[in-house]
Write a structure and sequence with these properties.
The chain has about 220 residues and is α+β, with helices and mostly antiparallel strands. It is built from 6 helices and 8 strands, in the order αααααββββββββα. It has 2 domains: about 1-100, no CATH class; about 115-215, SH3 type barrels. Helix content is about 45%, strand content about 20%. The strands form 2 sheets. The chain has a 5-stranded antiparallel β-sheet with strand order 6-5-2-1-8. A 3-stranded antiparallel β-sheet has the order 3-4-7, with no helix packed on it. A hairpin with a 7-residue loop joins strand 3 and strand 4 (about 165). The longest helix is centred in the middle third of the chain and has 31 residues, at about 70-100.
């Protein structure tokens, strides 16, 4: 056993193992950050890491590392293989998954509707939320809170407990948006207290409020 370990270490085994495992972990971790899936089973995580590692090594099939980089050129190439490439692989994988889900070829990668709203709809510049999202939040106590999901707005996503920070607060009159609260820089809402959230196109809300104000003046 000792001889086998010595042979492994003396013939580039350690660097070869690093070149295989590190890219897989980097790609897996990148995808987890981009599309959080909560606590993943250890077996599933290992399979993902190995798969990402295989893909990265296939891309760099022409470069076999038997020793650590010896100069700056090799160091840059080494970094590109074990860090840059797996990040790109993870981003491409995310894009493919989202496109397949949009065509109903696979199930949605978003674990909850909450995550879809704030991690996809609110950030899609070509979708229904491209002009911004106006939210009317109904709490379990029956109160209605309204505002725009904009800077410095923030929302916590899976696997963390849901909570919401609206970036701009609005007043409601008879359940309809009336005006921006002067000086507003945000409104924090605990997700546990939310009963329902109504979503509106922010530009349409502004146009509706403007028409109502013009009608009042007239």
């Amino acid at each position: 056993m000792a001889e086998a370990i010595e042979y492994f270490l003396n013939h580039g085994g350690l660097v070869g193992l690093a070149v295989f495992l590190v890219p897989g972990f980097v790609a897996w971790r990148t995808y987890q950050w981009r599309r959080p899936q909560g606590e993943q089973k250890a077996a599933d995580a290992v399979v993902d890491i190995i798969t990402f590692g295989v893909i990265t090594n296939l891309i760099w099939f022409w470069r076999v590392w038997t020793a650590w980089p010896a100069d700056i050129g090799q160091a840059l190439q080494f970094a590109a293989e074990i860090f840059v490439t797996p990040i790109l692989v993870a981003l491409v994988y995310q894009l493919v998954v989202e496109q397949c889900a949009a065509r109903n070829w696979i199930t949605s990668p978003h674990p909850r509707a909450w995550d879809y709203v704030f991690n996809a709809l609110a950030t899609d510049t070509n979708g229904p939320g491209k002009h911004g999202l106006f939210l009317i939040v109904t709490t379990k106590a029956g109160d209605k809170l309204a505002g725009v999901y904009s800077d410095p707005g923030f929302v916590s996503l899976w696997p963390y407990d849901r909570d919401l920070l609206l970036g701009q607060v609005w007043q409601l009159e008879n359940g309809r948006p009336a005006r921006i609260v002067a000086g507003s820089i945000g409104l924090y809402i605990d997700g546990a207290s939310i009963e329902a959230i109504e979503l509106f196109d922010y530009r349409s809300v502004l146009q509706s409020v403007t028409r109502n104000l013009e009608g009042t003046v007239t």
